[in-house]
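The instructor's notes for this session suggest beginning with a concrete chain rather than abstract definitions. Hand out the sequence below and ask the class to guess, before any prediction is shown, which regions might be ordered.
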Amino acid sequence: MYAASVSRISRKGAMIRVHIDHLLKAQGRSFYWLAKETGVSHTTLWRLKKDKAQGITFNTLESICKTLKCKPGDVLTMGRNHKPVKSRR
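After discussion, reveal the predicted structure:
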């Protein structure tokens, strides 16, 4: 669905994908613009983008969604942690 700009937050078998880069690119905006407009620290946004975040608060998610005029499902999606293994029969 999205290109390589998708970040991944892995947690015990689940994978949350963060699509901030894709949303910013689609709107012609920069990462620094998002930090300034949302009031969310550059460090917090960087951690989300680079798969370093342990979680995200509803306030942060709401600020990102309001600023980018999107829904939480546009920012975060579920995905697989690994590719399925093909059986050898």
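Then share the key points. Strands lie at 7-11, 14-18, 76-79. The two ends are 31 Å apart (CA to CA).
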